[in-house]
Amino acid sequence: MELAITLILFVALVTTAIAIVVMRHLFSVVMLSGVFSLLAALLFIVMDAVDVAFTEAAVGAGISTVLMLGTIALTARSELPPAKFSLTPLAVVVLTGAVLIYGTLDMPNFGTPDAPVQMHVGPDYIAKTPTDIDVPNIVTAVLASYRGFDTLGEVTVVFTAGLGVILLISGLGKRQRRKRGR
Amino acid sequence: MEQMTTLTFVLGHMNYWLFVVLMMTGLYIVVARGNLLKKVVGLNLFQAAVFMLYISMGKVAGGTAPIFTNNPAETYSNPLPHVLILTAIVVGIATTALGLALIVRINETYDTIEEDEILALDHATAQKEIDAVAKLGSDGGDVK
Lengths: 182, 144
Hints:
heterodimer; B: elongated
């Protein structure tokens, strides 16, 4: 059953991705990228990552869609057709994909309980969270308490990015008006 | 027996391969498409596929989401990949926002967000400067 759901989601994801490649209308591209994020969120739920799923749904399908729509409104509505079709990107992509797939051959099967990734710190956090933090959600406990400093670092990154965005586009309206007045 | 192990191997690794396919679709958009906004969308696609690959490693067969239930014998999926990817999603939207702001700024200066046109404009500007310098040089003026 789970396999069937995963496969259906994959078919939808790949179809969306290919549609994004083909579409020239940027509005459709942005909407499809929102759809992609929502489907990704569903896949995260199937893989037990509920916190990641709702973050992806809120951030990927929500905020980034809004930001991209804003960008379209300020720039262009559609993409120009490429000047010539080139095989080089296709070759690069196929080669990289082949190398990556070669890399997965040594990985343990999906869902193996004794895979190396399940052996070390993970079970430790699960065992200690009820006594150390006493929060039912282990992801919250690790994010906000055990690795709280990392989350502080993340907030710093977001703050810096916000500063960068403000510096880049501040005064845009003023400059545009001056340009038009000239 | 031999066929059995091959089948479990393929079923156990199929997820990873499908993630690679999604990842490469994103990479293709970044490399092959000239529109800057579409490149950002492709980068997001790539990023989402990496997240899926990462989350899939933390999945334990028969496990449940890492939220404590009343059953003490419950197996939970590994929470650590989830924590890492939560951070990565938020950092990802920060970089996307910065990239989009750069696109708006580029559009303000060049009046286009197509890579080819921007490069052509840059070449034209460079050529103009070279010509100006050459002209100054042939006039015997002091080139500075």
